[in-house]
Write a structure and sequence with these properties.
Length: 468
Protein backbone atom coordinates (compact mmCIF):
# COMPACT_ATOMS: atom_id res chain seq x y z
CA UNK A 1 0.00 0.00 0.00
CA UNK A 2 1.62 3.29 -1.05
CA UNK A 3 1.43 7.01 -0.40
CA UNK A 4 4.93 7.52 0.78
CA UNK A 5 1.79 4.42 10.17
CA UNK A 6 -4.28 -0.25 23.19
CA UNK A 7 -5.53 2.49 25.68
CA UNK A 8 -7.33 5.74 25.33
CA UNK A 9 -5.10 8.66 24.44
CA UNK A 10 -5.17 9.92 28.04
CA UNK A 11 -3.78 6.71 29.57
CA UNK A 12 -0.51 7.45 31.38
CA UNK A 13 2.35 5.86 29.59
CA UNK A 14 6.08 6.44 29.48
CA UNK A 15 7.55 5.57 26.11
CA UNK A 16 10.35 3.02 26.34
CA UNK A 17 13.79 3.91 25.17
CA UNK A 18 14.51 2.73 21.63
CA UNK A 19 17.20 0.40 22.87
CA UNK A 20 14.63 -1.42 25.00
CA UNK A 21 12.38 -2.08 22.00
CA UNK A 22 14.79 -3.74 19.60
CA UNK A 23 18.52 -4.31 19.76
CA UNK A 24 19.86 -1.74 17.33
CA UNK A 25 22.32 -2.48 14.59
CA UNK A 26 25.22 -0.10 14.04
CA UNK A 27 23.33 2.10 11.57
CA UNK A 28 20.29 2.14 13.89
CA UNK A 29 22.34 3.14 16.91
CA UNK A 30 23.98 5.90 14.91
CA UNK A 31 20.57 7.43 14.28
CA UNK A 32 20.09 8.08 17.99
CA UNK A 33 23.32 9.95 18.55
CA UNK A 34 23.36 13.72 18.94
CA UNK A 35 24.52 15.15 15.60
CA UNK A 36 26.09 18.11 17.39
CA UNK A 37 29.72 18.35 18.51
CA UNK A 38 30.70 15.45 20.69
CA UNK A 39 33.54 14.56 23.05
CA UNK A 40 37.01 13.94 21.76
CA UNK A 41 36.78 10.29 22.73
CA UNK A 42 35.16 8.07 20.09
CA UNK A 43 31.57 7.08 20.81
CA UNK A 44 31.53 3.28 21.32
CA UNK A 45 28.19 3.18 19.49
CA UNK A 46 29.54 5.11 16.49
CA UNK A 47 29.87 3.19 13.23
CA UNK A 48 33.29 2.12 12.13
CA UNK A 49 35.12 4.50 9.79
CA UNK A 50 34.38 2.20 6.84
CA UNK A 51 30.68 1.72 7.76
CA UNK A 52 28.15 2.80 5.12
CA UNK A 53 26.85 6.34 5.40
CA UNK A 54 24.04 8.39 3.92
CA UNK A 55 21.53 6.52 1.78
CA UNK A 56 23.80 3.44 1.79
CA UNK A 57 23.47 3.26 5.58
CA UNK A 58 19.68 3.22 5.26
CA UNK A 59 19.78 0.30 2.83
CA UNK A 60 22.14 -1.52 5.22
CA UNK A 61 19.11 -2.02 7.54
CA UNK A 62 17.40 -5.23 6.41
CA UNK A 63 13.94 -4.22 7.63
CA UNK A 64 14.05 -1.03 5.63
CA UNK A 65 14.88 -2.96 2.49
CA UNK A 66 11.67 -4.94 2.95
CA UNK A 67 9.65 -1.76 3.53
CA UNK A 68 11.25 -0.10 0.51
CA UNK A 69 10.52 -3.04 -1.79
CA UNK A 70 6.93 -3.28 -0.55
CA UNK A 71 6.43 0.44 -1.14
CA UNK A 72 7.84 0.25 -4.66
CA UNK A 73 5.72 -2.75 -5.66
CA UNK A 74 2.41 -1.52 -4.31
CA UNK A 75 2.92 2.04 -5.55
CA UNK A 76 3.58 0.89 -9.11
CA UNK A 77 0.53 -1.34 -8.86
CA UNK A 78 -1.69 1.51 -7.69
CA UNK A 79 -0.53 3.87 -10.46
CA UNK A 80 -1.21 1.19 -13.08
CA UNK A 81 -4.62 0.40 -11.59
CA UNK A 82 -5.63 4.08 -11.50
CA UNK A 83 -4.94 4.39 -15.20
CA UNK A 84 -6.61 1.08 -16.04
CA UNK A 85 -9.66 1.79 -13.87
CA UNK A 86 -10.13 5.17 -15.53
CA UNK A 87 -10.10 3.48 -18.95
CA UNK A 88 -12.45 0.75 -17.73
CA UNK A 89 -15.01 3.23 -16.37
CA UNK A 90 -14.88 5.19 -19.62
CA UNK A 91 -15.34 2.00 -21.66
CA UNK A 92 -18.38 1.01 -19.56
CA UNK A 93 -20.06 4.43 -19.48
CA UNK A 94 -18.63 6.59 -22.25
CA UNK A 95 -18.71 9.44 -19.70
CA UNK A 96 -15.65 11.73 -19.42
CA UNK A 97 -17.05 13.02 -16.10
CA UNK A 98 -17.15 9.58 -14.49
CA UNK A 99 -13.73 8.78 -15.91
CA UNK A 100 -12.26 11.95 -14.36
CA UNK A 101 -14.14 11.27 -11.11
CA UNK A 102 -12.27 7.98 -10.86
CA UNK A 103 -9.04 9.94 -10.44
CA UNK A 104 -10.59 12.46 -8.05
CA UNK A 105 -11.86 9.67 -5.81
CA UNK A 106 -8.24 8.73 -5.19
CA UNK A 107 -7.81 11.97 -3.20
CA UNK A 108 -11.14 12.88 -1.63
CA UNK A 109 -11.50 9.97 0.87
CA UNK A 110 -8.05 10.60 2.36
CA UNK A 111 -9.34 13.09 4.88
CA UNK A 112 -12.09 10.69 5.97
CA UNK A 113 -9.77 7.73 6.51
CA UNK A 114 -7.02 9.89 8.00
CA UNK A 115 -9.36 11.50 10.53
CA UNK A 116 -11.73 8.70 11.53
CA UNK A 117 -9.33 5.73 11.47
CA UNK A 118 -6.04 7.33 12.53
CA UNK A 119 -6.26 5.64 15.95
CA UNK A 120 -5.52 2.30 14.30
CA UNK A 121 -1.92 3.40 13.71
CA UNK A 122 -1.12 3.61 17.45
CA UNK A 123 -3.65 1.15 18.84
CA UNK A 124 -2.42 -2.02 17.11
CA UNK A 125 1.06 -3.39 16.28
CA UNK A 126 2.40 -1.66 13.18
CA UNK A 127 3.22 -4.83 11.24
CA UNK A 128 -0.31 -6.17 11.71
CA UNK A 129 -1.85 -2.88 10.57
CA UNK A 130 0.33 -2.72 7.45
CA UNK A 131 -0.35 -6.31 6.41
CA UNK A 132 -4.10 -6.06 7.02
CA UNK A 133 -4.28 -2.81 5.02
CA UNK A 134 -2.52 -4.46 2.08
CA UNK A 135 -4.82 -7.49 2.23
CA UNK A 136 -7.95 -5.32 2.42
CA UNK A 137 -6.80 -3.34 -0.61
CA UNK A 138 -6.03 -6.55 -2.51
CA UNK A 139 -9.55 -7.79 -1.73
CA UNK A 140 -11.12 -4.52 -2.94
CA UNK A 141 -9.18 -4.60 -6.19
CA UNK A 142 -10.05 -8.29 -6.69
CA UNK A 143 -13.76 -7.42 -6.53
CA UNK A 144 -13.17 -4.80 -9.25
CA UNK A 145 -12.15 -7.65 -11.55
CA UNK A 146 -15.57 -9.31 -11.34
CA UNK A 147 -17.40 -8.44 -14.60
CA UNK A 148 -20.72 -8.12 -12.74
CA UNK A 149 -19.40 -5.28 -10.54
CA UNK A 150 -21.35 -2.13 -11.54
CA UNK A 151 -19.71 1.23 -12.15
CA UNK A 152 -21.02 2.54 -8.82
CA UNK A 153 -19.39 -0.45 -7.13
CA UNK A 154 -16.08 0.28 -8.88
CA UNK A 155 -16.15 3.86 -7.65
CA UNK A 156 -17.10 2.79 -4.11
CA UNK A 157 -14.21 0.32 -4.02
CA UNK A 158 -11.89 3.03 -5.27
CA UNK A 159 -13.03 5.22 -2.37
CA UNK A 160 -12.42 2.42 0.14
CA UNK A 161 -8.87 1.84 -1.08
CA UNK A 162 -8.22 5.58 -0.86
CA UNK A 163 -9.63 5.71 2.71
CA UNK A 164 -7.28 2.91 3.78
CA UNK A 165 -4.22 4.57 2.21
CA UNK A 166 -3.57 7.29 4.86
CA UNK A 167 -3.80 4.75 7.70
CA UNK A 168 -1.25 2.57 5.94
CA UNK A 169 1.07 5.47 5.13
CA UNK A 170 0.89 7.02 8.60
CA UNK A 171 1.55 3.67 10.25
CA UNK A 172 4.53 3.04 8.00
CA UNK A 173 5.97 6.51 8.67
CA UNK A 174 5.70 5.94 12.42
CA UNK A 175 7.14 2.42 12.09
CA UNK A 176 10.22 3.83 10.37
CA UNK A 177 11.20 5.48 13.65
CA UNK A 178 11.32 2.00 15.21
CA UNK A 179 13.28 0.55 12.30
CA UNK A 180 15.70 3.41 11.65
CA UNK A 181 15.63 5.38 14.88
CA UNK A 182 14.52 9.01 15.21
CA UNK A 183 17.60 10.66 13.73
CA UNK A 184 19.30 10.99 10.36
CA UNK A 185 18.54 7.48 9.14
CA UNK A 186 14.82 8.11 9.58
CA UNK A 187 15.07 11.35 7.59
CA UNK A 188 16.96 9.65 4.75
CA UNK A 189 14.56 6.70 4.79
CA UNK A 190 11.57 9.04 4.42
CA UNK A 191 13.47 10.80 1.63
CA UNK A 192 13.96 7.54 -0.26
CA UNK A 193 10.27 6.67 -0.03
CA UNK A 194 9.36 10.12 -1.38
CA UNK A 195 11.80 9.70 -4.26
CA UNK A 196 10.18 6.36 -5.07
CA UNK A 197 6.75 7.99 -5.03
CA UNK A 198 7.85 10.70 -7.46
CA UNK A 199 9.62 8.19 -9.71
CA UNK A 200 6.67 5.81 -9.73
CA UNK A 201 4.45 8.54 -11.14
CA UNK A 202 6.85 8.87 -14.06
CA UNK A 203 7.37 5.15 -14.59
CA UNK A 204 3.97 3.83 -13.56
CA UNK A 205 1.89 5.76 -16.08
CA UNK A 206 4.27 4.73 -18.84
CA UNK A 207 4.15 1.10 -17.72
CA UNK A 208 0.36 1.30 -17.45
CA UNK A 209 0.09 2.62 -20.99
CA UNK A 210 2.24 -0.25 -22.27
CA UNK A 211 0.21 -2.82 -20.34
CA UNK A 212 -3.04 -1.49 -21.76
CA UNK A 213 -1.75 -2.12 -25.27
CA UNK A 214 -1.46 -5.86 -24.56
CA UNK A 215 -4.01 -6.41 -21.76
CA UNK A 216 -7.61 -5.44 -21.16
CA UNK A 217 -8.24 -2.85 -18.39
CA UNK A 218 -9.27 -5.63 -16.00
CA UNK A 219 -6.15 -7.58 -16.94
CA UNK A 220 -3.99 -4.59 -16.05
CA UNK A 221 -5.86 -4.14 -12.75
CA UNK A 222 -4.96 -7.75 -11.90
CA UNK A 223 -1.36 -6.56 -11.59
CA UNK A 224 -2.39 -4.46 -8.60
CA UNK A 225 -3.81 -7.47 -6.74
CA UNK A 226 -0.46 -9.21 -7.14
CA UNK A 227 1.53 -6.18 -5.99
CA UNK A 228 -0.62 -5.74 -2.87
CA UNK A 229 -0.19 -9.41 -1.96
CA UNK A 230 3.58 -9.22 -2.53
CA UNK A 231 3.76 -6.08 -0.38
CA UNK A 232 1.86 -7.84 2.43
CA UNK A 233 4.24 -10.80 2.26
CA UNK A 234 7.33 -8.58 2.36
CA UNK A 235 6.06 -6.66 5.38
CA UNK A 236 4.90 -9.81 7.20
CA UNK A 237 8.13 -11.75 6.81
CA UNK A 238 10.63 -8.92 6.36
CA UNK A 239 9.85 -6.77 9.43
CA UNK A 240 9.80 -7.46 13.16
CA UNK A 241 6.65 -7.64 15.24
CA UNK A 242 6.69 -4.75 17.70
CA UNK A 243 4.05 -3.88 20.32
CA UNK A 244 1.50 -1.14 19.77
CA UNK A 245 2.42 2.37 20.88
CA UNK A 246 -0.74 2.72 22.98
CA UNK A 247 -2.47 0.18 25.19
CA UNK A 248 -6.20 0.04 25.86
CA UNK A 249 -8.60 -1.84 27.99
CA UNK A 250 -11.80 -0.28 26.70
CA UNK A 251 -12.30 -2.43 23.62
CA UNK A 252 -12.84 -1.43 20.02
CA UNK A 253 -15.61 1.02 20.78
CA UNK A 254 -13.09 3.79 21.56
CA UNK A 255 -11.31 3.67 18.19
CA UNK A 256 -13.21 6.60 16.72
CA UNK A 257 -12.76 8.54 19.97
CA UNK A 258 -9.02 7.87 19.92
CA UNK A 259 -8.76 8.99 16.30
CA UNK A 260 -10.62 12.24 16.88
CA UNK A 261 -8.85 12.85 20.19
CA UNK A 262 -5.49 12.33 18.49
CA UNK A 263 -6.39 14.86 15.79
CA UNK A 264 -7.43 17.35 18.47
CA UNK A 265 -4.20 16.89 20.43
CA UNK A 266 -2.01 17.14 17.34
CA UNK A 267 -3.72 20.22 15.90
CA UNK A 268 -4.05 21.77 19.37
CA UNK A 269 -0.28 21.86 19.84
CA UNK A 270 0.99 25.13 18.40
CA UNK A 271 4.40 23.78 17.34
CA UNK A 272 3.10 20.60 15.72
CA UNK A 273 0.31 22.51 13.98
CA UNK A 274 2.78 25.01 12.50
CA UNK A 275 5.07 22.25 11.22
CA UNK A 276 2.15 20.33 9.74
CA UNK A 277 0.92 23.43 7.91
CA UNK A 278 4.43 23.92 6.53
CA UNK A 279 4.08 20.50 4.88
CA UNK A 280 0.61 21.33 3.57
CA UNK A 281 0.54 24.95 2.50
CA UNK A 282 3.27 25.08 -0.20
CA UNK A 283 1.98 21.77 -1.60
CA UNK A 284 -1.49 23.27 -2.02
CA UNK A 285 -0.24 26.09 -4.27
CA UNK A 286 2.54 24.31 -6.17
CA UNK A 287 0.09 21.92 -7.87
CA UNK A 288 -1.56 24.71 -9.89
CA UNK A 289 0.69 24.39 -12.99
CA UNK A 290 0.28 20.61 -13.02
CA UNK A 291 -3.50 20.87 -12.74
CA UNK A 292 -3.55 23.35 -15.63
CA UNK A 293 -0.84 21.73 -17.76
CA UNK A 294 -3.19 20.68 -20.56
CA UNK A 295 -4.86 24.08 -21.07
CA UNK A 296 -1.50 25.86 -20.77
CA UNK A 297 0.10 23.62 -23.42
CA UNK A 298 -2.86 24.46 -25.68
CA UNK A 299 -2.60 28.18 -24.92
CA UNK A 300 1.05 28.42 -25.99
CA UNK A 301 0.52 26.17 -29.01
CA UNK A 302 2.89 23.46 -27.76
CA UNK A 303 2.88 20.02 -29.44
CA UNK A 304 1.04 17.10 -27.76
CA UNK A 305 4.28 15.69 -26.33
CA UNK A 306 4.72 18.93 -24.37
CA UNK A 307 1.95 17.92 -21.97
CA UNK A 308 3.97 14.96 -20.74
CA UNK A 309 7.02 17.18 -20.26
CA UNK A 310 5.03 19.75 -18.30
CA UNK A 311 3.69 17.01 -16.02
CA UNK A 312 7.13 15.45 -15.46
CA UNK A 313 9.28 18.55 -14.97
CA UNK A 314 8.33 19.23 -11.36
CA UNK A 315 8.88 15.60 -10.33
CA UNK A 316 12.31 15.58 -11.99
CA UNK A 317 13.31 18.73 -10.10
CA UNK A 318 12.05 17.29 -6.82
CA UNK A 319 13.93 14.00 -7.24
CA UNK A 320 17.21 15.71 -8.18
CA UNK A 321 17.08 18.21 -5.31
CA UNK A 322 16.09 15.60 -2.73
CA UNK A 323 18.95 13.30 -3.76
CA UNK A 324 21.42 16.19 -3.54
CA UNK A 325 20.23 17.47 -0.15
CA UNK A 326 20.02 13.96 1.29
CA UNK A 327 23.49 12.92 0.16
CA UNK A 328 25.55 16.14 0.12
CA UNK A 329 24.29 18.06 3.17
CA UNK A 330 24.79 17.23 6.83
CA UNK A 331 21.77 16.97 9.16
CA UNK A 332 22.62 20.41 10.60
CA UNK A 333 22.71 22.04 7.16
CA UNK A 334 19.48 20.32 6.13
CA UNK A 335 17.89 21.91 9.18
CA UNK A 336 19.31 25.31 8.32
CA UNK A 337 17.80 25.39 4.81
CA UNK A 338 14.24 24.42 5.83
CA UNK A 339 12.78 27.88 6.35
CA UNK A 340 14.73 29.77 3.64
CA UNK A 341 13.93 27.20 0.95
CA UNK A 342 10.29 26.93 2.01
CA UNK A 343 9.98 30.73 1.85
CA UNK A 344 11.22 31.00 -1.76
CA UNK A 345 10.06 27.63 -3.11
CA UNK A 346 7.03 29.02 -4.96
CA UNK A 347 8.79 32.02 -6.50
CA UNK A 348 9.68 30.16 -9.76
CA UNK A 349 5.96 30.12 -10.58
CA UNK A 350 6.13 33.92 -11.02
CA UNK A 351 7.84 33.26 -14.38
CA UNK A 352 4.36 32.48 -15.69
CA UNK A 353 3.55 36.22 -15.58
CA UNK A 354 5.30 36.56 -18.97
CA UNK A 355 3.40 33.56 -20.40
CA UNK A 356 6.66 31.64 -21.01
CA UNK A 357 7.29 29.25 -23.83
CA UNK A 358 7.93 25.57 -23.24
CA UNK A 359 11.68 25.69 -22.34
CA UNK A 360 11.28 28.48 -19.77
CA UNK A 361 8.13 26.92 -18.30
CA UNK A 362 9.91 23.58 -17.89
CA UNK A 363 12.84 25.27 -16.12
CA UNK A 364 10.45 27.10 -13.77
CA UNK A 365 8.59 23.88 -12.95
CA UNK A 366 11.83 22.00 -12.27
CA UNK A 367 12.94 24.78 -9.87
CA UNK A 368 9.56 24.72 -8.13
CA UNK A 369 9.92 20.95 -7.71
CA UNK A 370 13.41 21.43 -6.29
CA UNK A 371 11.93 23.75 -3.68
CA UNK A 372 10.32 20.74 -1.99
CA UNK A 373 13.77 19.66 -0.76
CA UNK A 374 13.11 21.61 2.47
CA UNK A 375 10.88 18.72 3.55
CA UNK A 376 13.92 16.56 4.39
CA UNK A 377 14.85 18.79 7.31
CA UNK A 378 11.21 19.35 8.21
CA UNK A 379 10.78 15.58 8.66
CA UNK A 380 13.29 15.67 11.52
CA UNK A 381 11.60 18.63 13.18
CA UNK A 382 8.23 16.93 12.99
CA UNK A 383 9.32 13.61 14.48
CA UNK A 384 11.12 15.50 17.28
CA UNK A 385 7.98 17.52 18.08
CA UNK A 386 5.43 14.68 18.19
CA UNK A 387 5.24 12.48 21.32
CA UNK A 388 5.89 8.81 20.56
CA UNK A 389 2.42 7.62 21.58
CA UNK A 390 0.79 10.13 19.19
CA UNK A 391 3.17 9.51 16.31
CA UNK A 392 1.03 7.11 14.28
CA UNK A 393 -2.04 9.34 14.49
CA UNK A 394 -0.03 12.49 13.75
CA UNK A 395 1.58 11.00 10.67
CA UNK A 396 -1.71 9.57 9.44
CA UNK A 397 -3.29 13.00 9.75
CA UNK A 398 -0.27 14.56 8.04
CA UNK A 399 -0.66 12.22 5.06
CA UNK A 400 -4.41 12.68 4.81
CA UNK A 401 -4.14 16.45 4.99
CA UNK A 402 -1.37 16.58 2.40
CA UNK A 403 -3.37 14.64 -0.19
CA UNK A 404 -6.53 16.63 0.59
CA UNK A 405 -4.95 20.07 0.23
CA UNK A 406 -3.34 19.04 -3.06
CA UNK A 407 -6.72 17.96 -4.39
CA UNK A 408 -8.23 21.21 -3.12
CA UNK A 409 -5.43 23.22 -4.73
CA UNK A 410 -6.05 21.54 -8.09
CA UNK A 411 -9.78 22.19 -7.84
CA UNK A 412 -9.29 25.87 -6.93
CA UNK A 413 -6.80 26.34 -9.77
CA UNK A 414 -9.26 24.83 -12.22
CA UNK A 415 -12.06 27.05 -10.91
CA UNK A 416 -9.91 30.18 -11.21
CA UNK A 417 -8.96 29.24 -14.78
CA UNK A 418 -12.64 29.48 -15.71
CA UNK A 419 -12.41 33.25 -15.14
CA UNK A 420 -8.75 34.17 -15.73
CA UNK A 421 -6.04 33.13 -18.22
CA UNK A 422 -4.08 30.06 -17.16
CA UNK A 423 -0.75 31.88 -16.90
CA UNK A 424 -2.30 34.46 -14.55
CA UNK A 425 -3.75 31.72 -12.34
CA UNK A 426 -0.34 30.05 -11.97
CA UNK A 427 1.30 33.41 -11.26
CA UNK A 428 -1.35 34.20 -8.66
CA UNK A 429 -0.75 30.82 -7.02
CA UNK A 430 2.94 31.68 -6.72
CA UNK A 431 2.25 35.10 -5.20
CA UNK A 432 -0.48 34.09 -2.77
CA UNK A 433 1.35 30.90 -1.82
CA UNK A 434 4.58 32.79 -1.12
CA UNK A 435 2.83 35.36 1.08
CA UNK A 436 1.04 32.64 3.06
CA UNK A 437 4.24 30.62 3.41
CA UNK A 438 6.19 33.63 4.70
CA UNK A 439 3.57 34.15 7.40
CA UNK A 440 3.79 30.47 8.30
CA UNK A 441 7.60 30.56 8.37
CA UNK A 442 7.36 33.34 10.94
CA UNK A 443 5.03 31.17 13.05
CA UNK A 444 7.42 28.21 12.84
CA UNK A 445 10.24 30.47 14.02
CA UNK A 446 8.15 31.67 16.96
CA UNK A 447 7.38 28.12 18.05
CA UNK A 448 10.95 26.87 17.80
CA UNK A 449 12.24 25.20 21.00
CA UNK A 450 13.46 27.90 23.35
CA UNK A 451 11.62 30.68 21.51
CA UNK A 452 8.12 30.14 22.95
CA UNK A 453 7.11 31.91 26.14
CA UNK A 454 7.02 30.02 29.41
CA UNK A 455 3.22 29.96 29.33
CA UNK A 456 3.14 28.58 25.79
CA UNK A 457 5.74 26.00 26.71
CA UNK A 458 3.72 24.86 29.73
CA UNK A 459 0.55 24.68 27.61
CA UNK A 460 2.30 22.50 25.07
CA UNK A 461 3.70 20.29 27.81
CA UNK A 462 0.26 19.97 29.39
CA UNK A 463 -1.23 18.89 26.11
CA UNK A 464 1.47 16.26 25.74
CA UNK A 465 0.91 15.01 29.26
CA UNK A 466 -2.81 14.51 28.60
CA UNK A 467 -1.90 12.37 25.59
CA UNK A 468 0.27 10.01 27.56
Amino acid sequence: MPTDSPAPADTPRTPPAPAEQVPASAPERAAHRDPGPGPTLRDPDAPAPDAPRGYRAVFAVAEFRAVFAAHLLSLLGVVVSELALTVLVYDLTGSPLLSALTFALGLLPYIVGGTLFAGVADRYPARRVLVVCDLLCAACVAVMLVPATPVAGLLALRCLVAAIAPVFTGTRMAALTDILGEGDLYVLGRSLLRIVSQSAMLIGFGAGGVLLTVLSPRGAITVTVVTFLCSAALLRFGTRDRPARATTGDGGGTLLKESLSGARLVLGDRRIRALMLLFWLPAMFVVAPEALAAPYADAIGAPPAALGLLLCAMAVGHIGAELFVGSALSPRNRSRIVLPVAAVGLLPLLVYVVRPGLPLALAALALAGAGAAYVIGLDQWFVDAVPQELRGRAMTLLTAGLMTVQGLGMALAGLAAEFFPVHQVVTGSGIIGTVCTLLLVAEVRRTAPGRMSDTEGRDGADRHVTSR
